[in-house]
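User: Reviewer 2 asked us to show a designed sequence for the structure in our supplementary figure. I'm pasting the structure tokens here. Could you produce the per-position amino acids so we can include them in the response letter?
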């Protein structure tokens, strides 16, 4: 049995073979670098000032495009992206501050300074099949709408996943877990196709009159 020390603000749920670290402080995110852990989640509360800024967005405002950036250029790159979508960066000051903070967190965890990011508004179904990312580390945060759904390892049929079976064959023993709004997760992918990494999917929201505001950040060149 693998044992990991638990702090007052941290709980680690056992799975096989990987652990999932969850806590109320941002330093929990560093746990994802432990060999036994494939998901670390900072369970932070919503921020009203950001929610108010996002209330002006529509589902068509931020298309699903991938952008490359660095630790030092991120805010300028983000402002350029917002202007290209006819959005005033000054209207999203709190969001920009928070995103810059998240980039800094992934930089500390991964040791990288180059990233690929997506900041998107989504009103349809996106990646609703359970899958594993091919990027080594991905940070995600859902600011509005339903969060990303994921499976503890003990609930995953990896053989079904490998043969691209339907979701019901991959997911076992009940409903998937889900990130709450504003939670920050860093998940491991499986770039070498070793049958590892966190299994997850986007929630189905088509025809629900909901839309999501989602931030994804990948470390570039992490081994």
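Assistant: Here is a per-position design you can include in the supplement:
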């Amino acid at each position: 049995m693998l044992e990991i020390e638990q702090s007052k603000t941290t709980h680690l749920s056992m799975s096989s073979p990987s652990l999932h670290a969850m806590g109320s402080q941002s330093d929990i995110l560093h746990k994802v670098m432990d060999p036994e852990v494939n998901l670390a989640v900072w369970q932070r509360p919503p921020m009203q000032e950001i929610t108010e800024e996002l209330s002006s967005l529509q589902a068509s405002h931020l298309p699903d495009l991938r952008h490359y950036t660095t630790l030092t250029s991120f805010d300028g790159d983000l402002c350029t992206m917002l202007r290209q979508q006819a959005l005033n960066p000054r209207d999203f000051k709190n969001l920009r501050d928070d995103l810059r903070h998240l980039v800094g967190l992934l930089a500390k965890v991964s040791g990288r300074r180059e990233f690929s990011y997506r900041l998107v508004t989504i009103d349809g179904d996106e990646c609703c099949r359970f899958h594993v990312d091919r990027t080594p580390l991905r940070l995600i945060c859902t600011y509005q709408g339903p969060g990303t759904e994921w499976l503890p390892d003990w609930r995953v049929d990896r053989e079904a996943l490998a043969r691209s079976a339907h979701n019901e064959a991959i997911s076992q023993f009940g409903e998937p877990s889900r990130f709450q709004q504003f939670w920050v997760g860093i998940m491991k992918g499986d770039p070498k196709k070793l049958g590892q990494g966190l299994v997850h999917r986007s929630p189905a929201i088509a025809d629900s009159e909901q839309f999501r505001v989602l931030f994804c950040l990948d470390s570039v060149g992490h081994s």
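For the response letter, you might also mention the following. The longest helix spans residues 93-110. The radius of gyration is 17 Å.
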